[in-house]
């Protein structure tokens, strides 16, 4: 089991758990592992979101890279997918995003990307941890003229902007209407400037909220994890569509004109159907995780689309896509990967593809619900002792209750239990036709887990 890396990089409370000392060691080991097969001085890109701790972590990670002998380009505040795109575009050897994604501001994190702009594998993360723990870090110290140098290059984000604009400018020009107005919630995060710039460039009518980051208000009652704000805004202003990004911009959820949520499963259904109709769905296959709604499973069966499910985490979706050449996959949370464009979840790209489909088909956002029957789903987090969070399957009482629920919901729902890779939580998810029943059962099971694992 990995000591530092979770399901999405390293994520901890900044400056107490994610200390500058730890960050320095991770950077030095990471630079070695990611560039050890290179015969030239490695170049590493660093981007961050708007958290107050971002520059602290950036300074420590830069020092680690420079100490190893790598050169660094600092991109400033920039969405995760932009860093992924630029890593390939600039032929960088690796990149890092400093972000805790949808978590509150006191957390921060480190996500490594390979030279292909893809999140690194479990195996590479384990190798980085081995180097950190091996005592070899002192041997990886550059001296004299081998010490790395850093440069600030905030303008590189315009390369990403041009890339996104060029995908959509011609198609949107045909279908845009003056009464089609989009509400955008940037979660006071990494998309707070670039989203507005891209929408303006594409001449999409929009209104924007939560685009004034203070360093401590990222994801605070806003963005893709707190949709109440954008829902009310869409209804109040009679908008055609609402878009909500998360803190680092790799997720996107949407709101229809009536204030209903269009989650990642619905977006995957819309996209897979559209791509299939246009003969662009590789191998007629959609990839998602085990968290996807049962309604998506029944939808793909009805539409004769092959469906592959992976364990939770967009990196596992991507690994499956790469292994077999699939081009669409994602998560219910709004990580949507379209490999024809970018090798990671991309909130802005996802939102623009959704807008394109709605305009091209000349349908309201609310009409997309006609294509998929979403089952009621309840997710309850059981707060447990971090050291015991993987022990739920070894507890006889918990296991007995899970088996009872699996038998009860068989055929008309399902139950899924998983441990958070980044927080001291065990997540209980139950689907079924009766919302009140599944709420009661999910809460009871979460309470039992808390009692036994604290």
Summarize the structure.
This protein has helices at 20-35, 54-68, 80-89, 122-134, 157-175, 194-201, 228-237, 264-277, 294-302, 314-324, 347-361, 396-409, 435-452, and strands at 10-13, 43-48, 71-77, 94-98, 107-113, 150-152, 181-185, 205-209, 241-245, 252-255, 261-262, 285-289, 306-310, 328-330, 336-338, 377-383, 413-419, 425-432.
Task: Give a written overview of the molecule.
- The protein is of the alpha/beta class and 454 residues long.
- It folds into three domains: 10-152, Alpha-D-Glucose-1,6-Bisphosphate, subunit A, domain 3 (Alpha-D-Glucose-1,6-Bisphosphate, Chain A, domain 3); 159-371, Alpha-D-Glucose-1,6-Bisphosphate, subunit A, domain 3 (Alpha-D-Glucose-1,6-Bisphosphate, Chain A, domain 3); 377-452, 2-Layer Sandwich (TATA-Binding Protein), CATH 3.30.310.50.
- It contains 13 helices and 18 strands.
- Helix 2 (54-68) links the parallel strand 2 (43-48) and strand 3.
- Helix 3 crosses helix 5 and helix 5 (157-175) packs parallel to helix 6.
- The longest helix has 19 residues, at 157-175.
- The two termini are 21 Å apart.
- pLDDT below 50 for ≥5 consecutive residues: which ranges? none
| Name of the level-1 CATH class of the largest domain | Alpha Beta
Determine the mean pLDDT: 94
Strand order of the largest sheet: 1-5-4-2-3-6
How many beta-strand runs?
18
**What's the CATH H-level superfamily name of the largest domain?**
Alpha-D-Glucose-1,6-Bisphosphate, subunit A, domain 3
Radius of gyration: 22 Å
Distance between the termini: 21 Å
If helices are DSSP runs of H or I spanning 4 or more residues, what is the number of helices?
13
Architecture of the largest domain, according to CATH? 3-Layer(aba) Sandwich
């Amino acid at each position: 089991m990995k000591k530092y890396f979770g399901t999405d990089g390293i994520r901890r409370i900044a400056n107490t758990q994610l200390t500058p000392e730890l960050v320095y060691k991770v950077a030095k080991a990471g630079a070695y592992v990611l560039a050890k097969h290179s015969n030239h001085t490695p170049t590493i890109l660093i981007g961050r979101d708007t958290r107050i701790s971002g520059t602290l972590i950036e300074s420590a990670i830069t020092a680690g890279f420079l100490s190893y002998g790598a050169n660094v380009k600092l991109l400033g505040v920039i969405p995760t997918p932009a860093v992924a795109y630029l890593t390939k575009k600039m032929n960088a050897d690796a990149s890092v995003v400093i972000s805790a994604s949808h978590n509150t501001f006191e957390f921060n994190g480190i996500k490594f990307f390979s030279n292909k702009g893809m999140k690194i594998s479990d195996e590479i993360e384990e190798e980085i941890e081995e180097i950190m723990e091996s005592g070899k870090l002192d041997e990886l110290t550059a001296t004299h003229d081998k010490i790395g140098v850093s440069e600030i290059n905030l303008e590189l984000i315009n390369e990403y902007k041009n890339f996104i604009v060029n995908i959509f400018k011609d198609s949107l020009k045909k279908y845009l209407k003056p009464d089609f107005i989009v509400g955008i919630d940037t979660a006071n995060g990494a998309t707070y400037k670039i989203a507005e710039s891209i929408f303006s460039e594409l001449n999409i009518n929009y209104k924007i909220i939560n685009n004034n980051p203070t360093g401590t208000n990222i994801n605070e009652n806003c963005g893709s994890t707190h949709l109440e704000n954008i829902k009310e805004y869409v209804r109040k202003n009679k908008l055609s569509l609402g878009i909500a990004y998360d803190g680092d911009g790799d997720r996107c959820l949407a709101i229809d004109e009536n204030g209903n949520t269009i989650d990642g499963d619905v977006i995957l259904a819309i996209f897979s159907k559209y791509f299939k109709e246009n003969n662009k769905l590789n191998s007629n296959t959609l990839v998602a995780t085990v968290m996807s709604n049962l309604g998506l499973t029944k939808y793909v069966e009805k539409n004769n689309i092959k469906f592959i499910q992976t364990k939770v985490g967009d990196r596992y979706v991507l690994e499956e896509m790469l292994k077999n050449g699939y081009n669409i996959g994602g998560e219910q949370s709004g990580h949507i990967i379209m490999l024809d464009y970018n090798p990671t979840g991309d909130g802005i790209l996802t939102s623009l593809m959704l807008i394109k489909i709605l305009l091209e088909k000349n349908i309201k956002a609310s009409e997309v619900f006609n294509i998929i029957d979403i089952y009621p789903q309840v997710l309850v987090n059981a707060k447990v002792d971090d050291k015991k969070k993987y022990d739920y399957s070894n507890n006889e009482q918990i296991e007995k209750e899970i088996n009872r629920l699996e038998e009860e919901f068989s055929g008309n729902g399902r139950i899924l239990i998983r441990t958070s890779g980044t927080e001291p939580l065990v997540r209980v998810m139950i689907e079924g036709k009766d919302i009140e029943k599944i709420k009661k059962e999910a809460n009871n099971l979460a309470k039992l887990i808390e009692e036994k694992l604290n």
